[in-house]
Amino acid sequence: MDYPQTGAIIQIHSYKHDGHIHRAWKETVVLKGSEDEVIGGNDRTLVTESDGRTWVTREPAICFFYAEHWFNIIAMIRPEGVYYYCNISSPYVWDGEALKYIDYDLDIKVFPNGQYEILDRDEYERHRKQMNYPEIIDKILKNNIQKLIQWIKEKKGPFAPEVVEHWYKKFIMYGK
Asked: Binding residues for Mg(2+) 1, per the UniProt record (predicted)?
């Protein structure tokens, strides 16, 4: 599998199951690129929504994308601690233009104290019916929610405090 190289500045594109663009982040610095995962950092990057509206992210974020897991994790670094926004999504693909994934609506927000909340269940159900998510996709996504909750509870991967700190220091070295 091809993947973006460490040090590259890439775009991230999020799609919906029906193939329509959902959201695009203009600039993310690749902190680690491998066949298994891509870790990136951004701060105050321009985000374009599917309807053309734009906004700019407010804080530094370290983003974790996986080739085999059906989720990605955004660690937002704020003065009061690290907040995580976890998208239930397809594994990433890299086509040389952007890192791309399908956003499947369900999200988990994790607070600095470790508490978490599952978001957008209604949106997921609505889109599941509208876009005819195959039953196997529904099963994969629900299994990955459980896997993600285990990671949160066990402080595995990006949920281990030293992991985000390590990658944030690397991001700062790039001067972004």
From this structure: 87, 103, 107
The answer to whether 87 is a known ligand-binding residue is yes
Annotated binding-site residue? 43: no
At residue 161, the pLDDT reads 82
The annotation status of 51 as a binding-site residue, yes or no, is: no
Q: pLDDT, tens digit, for every residue of 138-157?
A: 999 999 999 999 999 999 99
Q: Please name the fold of domain 8-174.
A: FomD barrel-like fold (2.40.380)
β pairing state of 81-89 and 9-15? unpaired
Position 2 pLDDT exceeds 90: no
Per-residue pLDDT tens for 92-143? 999 999 999 999 999 999 999 999 999 999 999 999 999 999 999 999 999 9
d(CA 40, CA 64): 7
Query: What's this model's pTM, rounded to 2 decimal places?
Result: 0.96
Point out the residues that are catalytic. Answer: 23
Q: Which amino acid is at 19?
A: G
Q: Coil, strand, or helix at residue 16? A: coil
